[in-house]
Amino acid sequence: MKNKLSISKDCVAERLDDELIILNLSTGMYHNLNLVGIIIWEEIQRTNPSIEILIEQLQQRFDSASIESDVQEFVNDLLMRKLITKE
């Protein structure tokens, strides 16, 4: 079974117009996401996809040659900041 992505239990998020503000309660750090970041965050929150499924879902929504590497890089950044986890 592929590793599923999920939002860290230490994070709370609030959407403000075209921005999502995330507070990591364990680090006290604030993070903000743009519209594409919000789409990825909400997809992880809603479906707990594996990275492969997440990339497939986003490829259907966006016509971009770099979507796979962009999503991989963004997810790795979220993991490094402990905003999401792999289960």
Short description:
This protein is of the alpha+beta class. Helix content is 44%, strand content 26%.
Can you tell me the overall shape? globular
- Specify the number of helices: 3
Number of domains: 1
Derived from helix and strand composition plus strand pairing, the structural class reads alpha+beta
Please write the string of helix (H) and strand (E) elements: EEEEHHHE
Describe this structure in words.
With 87 residues, this protein is α+β, with helices and mostly antiparallel strands. It has one domain (10-81). 44% of the residues lie in helices and 26% in strands. It contains 3 helices and 5 strands, in the order E-E-E-E-H-H-H-E. The chain has a 3-stranded antiparallel β-sheet. A two-stranded antiparallel ribbon has the order 1-5. Strand 2 (11-16) and strand 3 (19-24) form a beta hairpin. The radius of gyration is 12 Å and the shape is globular. The termini are close together. The model has no long low-confidence stretch (mean pLDDT 94).
Keywords:
3 helices, 5 strands, globular, alpha+beta, 87 residues, 26% strand
Topology:
Blueprint (H helix, E strand, L loop, with lengths): L4 E3 L3 E6 L2 E6 L4 E5 L1 H13 L3 H11 L5 H14 L3 E3 L1
Antiparallel strand pairs: 1-5, 2-3, 3-4
